[in-house]
Write the structure tokens for this entry.
Amino acid sequence: MALAAQRRGAALKPEMFVSNDELGAKERELAARLMQWVSSDLEQAIVAVSAARAFDQELFSRLGADLGFPAGAEAFRQVTSFSFVSPRGERWAIHLLLRRALRRVAPDVVARAHRALADYYRTVPHADAFSARLERIYHEARLDPAAGVRMWRDEMRAALDQSRYDRCRPLITLMPDIEVPSEPDAEAMAYLAAGAEIALGDHGEAQRLLDSLPAEAPYALLLRANLAFARSDFAAAQSLSEQALAKAGPGPARLPFLFRAAELCLFLGRFEEGRRWCEEGLAIVGDDGDANESARWHALLARLNFFGGDIETAKSELAQAQRALDTLPEESWDKSVEAVIRVNEAVVAEAEISATTCSSPRSCGVRPRHRSWPGTWMRPSAWPRPPSRASSGAVSLTTLLTASSPSPECGRRAVIALEG
């Protein structure tokens, strides 16, 4: 198809692969050629399981019960013995080309299978609930692309908000399997995927995604600031952050922009300015706002006060951050926020012990420094959100405190608190 398009001087576009008659004919030919070796009593079984990205005997039996085809142990053995079915871990998968062909050849049966599978992953408890949600998103997206995109975005936001970065890669891997219905949907997914790639440390892929987004859009500027921050390019991060903040709207949509600006003030030593950004952010969150969000802001304000020399106010802000978390069940706490609170509590405690020899944290050599923590510890802090959301995402553990010199006592103890 690519060669034919090249000969005709036409550019290939994704939608051409969906509606192209020539490609459809070749897919039907492929399906007929492979299915000619399949007995009639197994045809429906193969068409049905082709809707699944992977299947096991339990899923096979469930589809048989819902769609009305024989799905016993012998039928399962026969289906999995065909050359176009291969093992995938503890499950089995039909070759992707045949799956696509059968989707075009028998759309009604495949759609019924998608509905049955979406219901299965929605209603049947699974040991790995996240993987079950992934599969449900896939099947819902095959039935209703717009609904699937919404579910994907909600799941990715939750992963970022809760610092569950282990869930980001599977969600990114799912993206090519989702038929995105509109350009705005594609952009919204790209924003979230770019934020996830920054969190996962794949800066090249994050840059590629950012290059596909409007260069001057506020959230694109914010993500570029996050990427520059992750690369320790603080000058670029500050410039991009200021541009993003200038373009940001009012209300909750402003929160991630304010957070990045305040965090940069921490690293640049502009503590009073950073405190002003935090106070504006906390006013937007409000007393009845999201508890994780409130804790995140109080923890950042604590760091700004600590390095500004006001240890008592820093302690008070950390206590407020913990009180905010305490309003939630512990399993709902943002773990990165909790980690920031614990580390800062330890550093403040050590600084108090050394108060007789140090007039302030900075005078004892303790100052904020960007640190490249291994693995999941290296995180940008503010994830873009559609304007309707009030959550700014996961706080960076790159804002943890470290010492500039091991010689002063409180600086040395700060390092012990951080690295131990």
Observations:
- Residues 191 and 384 are 7 Å apart (CA to CA).
- DSSP finds 21 helices and four strands in the chain.
- Strands lie at 85-88, 91-94, 366-368, 401-403.
